[in-house]
Amino acid sequence: MLRLFCCAVLVAALVGTGPYGHAQRPSEPMTLDNALRQAAPPVRPTAPPESSGRKEPKSEYMRPSGTYVRPTDGSKDPELDKAWGTYDAAIKTATAALRSKMNEKYMAARTAAKIDDVTRYNELLEDLDKKGKLPSDDKSLSPALAATRNAYDDAASDLEKSYKAVVERLLKDTAIDASVARAVDQERVQLAAQGIARPQIPPDAIKIGRHSYYVFFGPVTQEQAVAECKKRGGYLARITEPKEFAMFHKKLLLLQNKSTFWVDGTDAANEGTWTFLNGDPMPQPLPWLPGEPNNDTRGRWIDGNWRRQEQDGLAIQVIRADGAWTTGMDDLEQTAQAGFICEWE
Ligand SMILES: [Ca+2]
Ligand SMILES: [Ca+2]
Description:
This protein is about 40% helix and about 15% strand.
């Protein structure tokens, strides 16, 4: 009986398999059509229907630039483990919110068939997903970027507090050598030095000599502009030399749009005497726009109230005059909203 079964299996195998041993359909009559069909290259699988959105980022988490990386040789402490967990979660959430905003822009650009924007947002998304690189600046993403950076700062500040708390606890515990507390504190200092506060110079920054400059679109007040540059490890640009001005003249003219950017400078202390914001004298006479500085005090609406203010803040402006675009300095109310230029040494 067993022998019979074996033979049946063998016969079935011989009948049912082709030259490569793969199972085949029952043979069809050899017609021209069938012969051609068998000779034809295999039909390529059809492309999957285009998905409604961009591909989701890979599941593994890419730590974005400008955030702390936990030192591997640091102290192992449950409280610090927990703090790092909280920090990582906060960074992840903030980054995911930014990514979602970028994806939204990407989809909107696709819907509007704006090819350039589609390409740009796709590149920004890839940079974020593959390199952890935040968009250096993008007018349409400014609020989302600012929110992300604030979230990073908050997370870093919470982490710093946890480190300090752990150091305090370790120092109080007589059973633990003080050197352990010092090592933890050292780790905190290292993080602060290499982390959030490090200069964040956009890769496409303008270079003049050893200095880098970047034009941000804001809009912010002059005081906020100072804070924004400081946050990036730089300072509000000091445009004092003709070659610096010439460079911005050239770059900003490309905007072909009325725009204003804060730079370092004020005459708040002494009307008409321009100094840097910290009071240092300004070395070069500035190329003012025609009719400026006028300390225009016509006033404007600020927070629902008509206010008259002195124009005590220094800005570089792109305007259209006599049918052509030009740039130059203007004095503005320091609470006015404008873009800004950061500088790094
Ligand atoms: Ca003034
Ligand atoms: Ca003015």
